[in-house]
């Protein structure tokens, strides 16, 4: 069989380590849920009424993926670079228009993640009614720890983040506005979910800026940790 002759070498697949395995999880799409904790929605000036609203999403390119423990440069174009601590769901089976009752069958595992954000650019885009890409979908902005194979659907568990050892975010997964089953069912009504898709499920209140030299550490009970160091600007 002949091989495709590319103009230049395509990038290698993006992947994450899996706890207890030598094999890695290849990453497809990265979906992010916006404003999925009431207190965070309020601190962003956009409170959510679940009775009249539905989840909304933005995407990060797989090339934005960074493994936990890395040092990343302070990104270009921003003076307000924020952390957002999140539970990440890794999809392991295909699904389209799944019900909430069947959503658990699509879950391969979980991870602790960071949705790093150029907040000033995001807010400018929001106020102008423009897409959030410059604020959210930029290089090295999706940080993720190892994938932990699931033993069930997470309904509760502490989620927390520290910067230089000082706690900045502290909440519980039970405070998600839309829980994991609801998110998967809703998202699968718009996309054919596939193995390797990641879902960042939203961040609690307490988001804030970091500077070069800062060290971020986050945890999700029953899942694991994520860590990131901020380097000097390029």
TrEMBL record:
Q: Which InterPro entries match?
A: Fumarylacetoacetase-like_C, Fumarylacetoacetase_C_sf
Q: Where are the transmembrane segments?
A: none
The positions making up the signal sequence are: none
Domain Fumarylacetoacetase-like C-terminal, chain residue ranges per copy: 30-227
Q: Which GO terms describe its molecular function?
A: acetylpyruvate hydrolase activity; metal ion binding
A Pfam family that the UniProt record links to this protein: FAA_hydrolase
Q: Which domain of life is it from?
A: Bacteria
Q: Keywords for this entry?
A: Hydrolase, Metal-binding
Identify this protein by name.
Fumarylacetoacetate hydrolase family protein
